[in-house]
Design brief:
With 114 residues, the chain is mostly helical. 45% of the residues lie in helices and 5% in strands. It has a domain at 19-73. A two-stranded antiparallel sheet has the order 1-2.
Length: 114
């Protein structure tokens, strides 16, 4: 459920979200990851002479986040949603035999009789 302009929009289809929405979401996650990386590098610089252990952890975090951000951003589209749990399949129809009538089991004839 998303809100657009104050109205609630309910998703009732099994279709994926639009490509533009998907790209926008991946770009947003990438920008957030890069912002966290920038803050961790700045924290490492500021804390280097104060608390060296925390500065090293922040520096390692700043070094690993670009890789993680790119992998997450390039992960691709989400999987299509599955059917709702309240889905009830329709009734099945019997198969038709080649003659056009419904298939019924045939009685076996003893060998030797035609």
């Amino acid at each position: 459920m998303r809100k657009h302009g104050g109205t609630e929009v309910f998703r009732i289809t099994g279709a994926r979200q639009g490509l533009a929405d998907d790209v926008r979401g991946r770009e947003r996650r990438y920008v957030i990851s890069m912002s966290v990386r920038t803050l961790s590098v700045i924290a490492a610089v500021l804390l280097w002479n104060v608390e060296r252990h925390v500065a090293i952890v922040a520096l390692v975090l700043g070094g690993l986040l670009p890789y993680v951000a790119v992998v997450i951003a390039n992960a691709g589209r989400e999987k299509p949603p599955t059917l709702p749990s309240t889905f009830v399949p329709g009734p099945t129809r019997p198969e038709l035999s080649p003659g056009g009538t419904t298939a019924e089991p045939r009685a076996e004839r003893p060998s030797g009789q035609s």
